[in-house]
Each structure stands twice: as structure tokens, then as C-alpha cells.
């Protein structure tokens, strides 16, 4: 049985276009979704990670946790069914599947901190080859610091996946020897899904698992600020 | 006979004093006790320390309380929200203090405060700037940081149903911080959509036992923050 979240069909126009170079955001989400096993309890971050739910292969039952207090999160409801007291961590209206449960914040983060959630998919500003993650602050002096549940998720969830563009819009590397931004957690990331490659974080550093269409090892290496390990 | 029912939100918040620490329930607008917050604005207590996950949006509810100059310090996890300009402007001007706490640590600090636990250890924030200056300890080979329990003079929360003895039920994800804040405050004030006789809520489905609740005021149809923000409403 598949979760209702997986029933909504992808509609993003990017998905319709046949990409011959690199992966689109939808395809990055699709890649990550393949690695979510049947029966997993999963927390999805805001942004591209939210798209992962659409691509979990049929036949796998996945239960979604949202840290504001719902296990068994379903898709966006129809306009008529929206209740502003039924929202996700991004404060958007959601639905509850049959068999869902509501709980208070301390219980919700006990699920996270207590290692009961199997997989969390998050965005990133930077990831180091040791698996350090920076995704909450650039450390800029005038920035309003805001952390939410990111530090709790990376410290507590069993497996952390990251979905991110391989470089910043300016072309700077996001995969580095050491993060320059303030950390969210140390040594927490297991796998990274970028527009160029799927990468595993190993004891020896970043290991390429799969290259995107039209992309070769050297192309990815040139856009990464530390040495990559060949597949 | 126990009677926690108050006639109006104004009466329920009348003794909140200058300098008080006030926990306010809600995650964004979901669960925000907006009528109690507006009553606190009318009441005018100043130099408050407010504990909430966010800092409100637009110019109503928590954002309006901050804009009215009543909050000296915010303890929260995510002070940036869509339509939120009040807090960022005051923060940049150095007119409000921020204690930034990871969301789960914030929840556990509140729970611990209410459960008589002065401090605990968590792996959350180890190796990040938010652990700087805090006591670290290794248990079973993993490093943890010490966090302190949080208590408050008052908690303002919202429920779907309250009975005469203060037993509460909530609506969906509006529950968020309310049950733990009710435990951590000296005086917990609830605005409830429904008020029922003792026994009307099955003891098996009570979420917050009445011992944690001091005052109840009925607000049958609470305002919806996002609707007020969309309509450009400012309070007062």
C-alpha cells in the first residue's frame, strides 16, 4: 500500500522537459525517493525535499512526520478542506492520513532526538567531506539568526539525506573540505543528491555513486572544493 | 468549589506584571491565543520576556505585542516568518534581545521546566555556535551539551475544549507547545473555543490534565491571524 502522498502526479514543467545535461530539481527528488525503503518514517525539509514524497516508488508505505506535531502527514488538501490549524513545519496547510496522530512539541522532538525517525531529507548551504552540514545561517552580521528544528533533526534522525544544487548561483562550491558557514551539525550527512551527481559521504570523503546524464567525473570534480572518490 | 472560568480575556490577564516571563502557545498562527495576546496589549504590562517558537506576523497578535514595545526579550527558534517585519526591525536596531534556541531544545527545556528538571543533556547543537559557552559532557562516547529547564510566570494558550476543572483538548496541530507550556507556568491561562461541564470530556482523551490549568476564558470564534494580516489589520 502506498501513502496518499505518493498519489499526486508530478506536474512541474521541468519534469516534462527531457534533460540531457544534469538533473532537474524534480529528478533530484526522484533520485532521493528511490533510496527511501518501505516502512520508513521520514521527515522532509522545506523546499526541494518536500517534492520527494511524490516520487516514492509504488508499493512502499512511507509515513511522514512533520515536527510541529503530526505523524501521518498527507498531501495538500483541497481549498474547501483547509484548516489553518492543520499545517506542516513550513506553515502550509496539509492533510492527515487515516492512522495519523497528533502530539505536542516535546513528544515530536522525542521522536527526532530519540532516533525514532529513519530518514530526514534537508537542503544545504554547504556540506563538508566529513559530513558536516551548514544550512541555517551564513553568519553575516546583519542576518536575523533562525534555526528552527534543523539542529535537532541532524542530531537525532538516523540517516540524513541532503538535496542541493552542486554549486551556488554564483558558481561557488557547496561541497567543501570544511564548511565556512556556522554548522548545523558535525558528521551528520550520509548522502547528497545534487544536479550533477549522487554522492555518498564515507570515512575517506565524498564518493561518487552516480553521475547525472552528460556529466563526467572531472566536470563534477571541478565544481567541488575537495577531492572526490571515483565510483 | 473549583472555578477557573473568567468572564473576559481582559480579566484573565489583568495581573500580568511588568518584567514577567510569559510563554505563548502557537506555531505560527496555528494555536496562537490571539484574543489573550490582544488583551495583554490592552493591559500594557512591559519589559516582558516572551517564549514562543516565532515572533508573529503582520501587525496583530504576537507581532503587535512586540511592536507595542512590551517585549524586552524573545526566546524562540525561528524569529523570521513570512510577513514578519516587526521583530527583525527592532532586533537590528538593538531594541530587543533574542535568545535563539533550537526548536526541539526549546520544547524540551519547557517540558523539563514543567516537570521539575532543572537541566538536561542533548546532542542537538553540539559543534555549532549555539553550544558555545555551555557545559559539555560525554556519555557512551557521544558528546552532549547541557541545557536548562525553562519556567514562566504565565502561559497563554488556546484549546478547542476545556471543562470546568481545566482538562483540555486541542485542534490538530494547534496543540504544538500548549500542553508543555501549561506545565511550565505558575499561572496558565487558556482561551477555549468550548467550555463544558466536568465529565463531558472522556478521561481517556484528555490531553492536558486540569491540574496544569488555572484560568479559562471562552472565545467561541477566535480570529485567524493570517486573515487579519491579509486584510491589513493592525492591533490596537
UniProtKB/TrEMBL annotation, chain B:
Keywords: Transferase. InterPro entries: 3-oxoacid_CoA-transf_A, CoA_trans_fam_I, CoA_transf_BS, NagB/RpiA_transferase-like. Gene3D superfamilies: Glutaconate Coenzyme A-transferase. Pfam families: CoA_trans. It comes from the Bacteria. Belongs to the 3-oxoacid CoA-transferase subunit A family. This is 3-oxoacid CoA-transferase subunit A. It comes from Shewanella schlegeliana. The lineage of its organism: Bacteria, Pseudomonadati, Pseudomonadota, Gammaproteobacteria, Alteromonadales.
